[in-house]
Amino acid sequence: MSAQPTDDYTARSARRRAASRARRRQLNARVDVAVGVAVAIVALLAAPGLAIVVLIAAIVLAACVVSLVVERRRRNRGERRDQ
Description:
By secondary structure, the chain is mainly alpha-helical. It contains two helices and no strands.
C-alpha cells in the first residue's frame, strides 16, 4: 500500500517536469522569433543601403525559422520516445 502514493508522486512530478520543459521550449522559440524580428526592424531603420539590409534581415529571419523547425522536431522526437 505504501508504494501507491510514491508512484503517484513520481508520475505527477514527471508530468510537471515535462510541462515545464515544454513551456521553456515554447518561450525560447518565441524569444528567437522576437529577436529576429527586432534585429530586422532595427537594421531596416538604421542602415542606408536598403537592399543589403533587406538581404541581411531575410537571412536573420531564415535562421530564426530554421531554429524553430529544429526545436519543433526535437520536441516531437522526445514525445514519441516517451510514448
